Amino acid sequence: MNQHPDASALVASASAMAARSLLPPLALLLIVVFAGSLSPAGALRFDLQSGHTKCISDDIKVGAMAVGKYHVVPPTPPDEGSLSSSSSQPQLPDSHRISLRVTAPYGSSLHYAENVQSGNFAFTASEAGDYLACFWAPDHRPPATVGFEFDWRSGVSARDWGSVAKKGQVNMMELELKKLEDTIKSIHEEMFYLREREEEMQELNRRTNSRMAWLSFLSLAICLSVAGLQLWHLKNFFERKKLL
């Protein structure tokens, strides 16, 4: 049987990770406590006109897991008197269907569904950047408005903590400590990722400034050459006309 770390070991691991992070320990602790106190965000609801497209993007780093769920919502709430029972589900019209394509930053397709009323997807990011989820509704006459809910999570929030608690048979305190430990690791990795992006942008700025400096010198040389040619041409012209 696998042994699971106790609460003291998790606290020690979290403290060590905080000490090695790029932020001061007190500031990092405040961020972690604030993040842990927030309740997880629910699904977002969107309205989509038939024949139109709506895209949502998320910046995901390499190796992070992402999961998403989506489903079409009824156009109007059903009347309570028309339902045979409280557990019956309202029937959606045929016009209330959507299509979805999830693409990576370089255009590769990760998920595709056409004319569905619900679905889900999951993937592990193989490249860093903006991942795009585009929904569209088929043309319909008369035009209809399709409402749908979309829940997209990545990183620590994408992990199924319920299954972790059941599989590991840990209590609530250990589960919260596991969440804090993963949050600290995520912040630590995010800081290094931001530092790498900053170095890339600084290198790009240096190359751009160097090229602009060479372009400025080249433009100045061309202008001086053209001015010299104009003076030489005017001098020869006046000499031929015997004006000088």
TrEMBL record:
Superkingdom, natural source: Eukaryota
Any Gene Ontology CC annotation: membrane
Keywords on record: Membrane, Signal, Transmembrane, Transmembrane helix
The UniProt record lists the keyword DNA-binding: no
Lipid bilayer topology: Single-pass type I membrane protein
Localization (cell): Membrane
Region (Disordered): 75-94
Domain GOLD: 53-179
Transmembrane segments: 212-232
InterPro entries hit by this protein: Emp24-like (IPR015720), GOLD_dom (IPR009038)
Compositionally biased region (Low complexity): 82-93
PANTHER family assigned: TRANSMEMBRANE EMP24 DOMAIN-CONTAINING PROTEIN
UniProt family annotation: Belongs to the EMP24/GP25L family.
Protein name from the UniProt record: GOLD domain-containing protein
Species in which this protein is naturally found: Leersia perrieri
Lineage of source species: Eukaryota, Viridiplantae, Streptophyta, Embryophyta, Tracheophyta
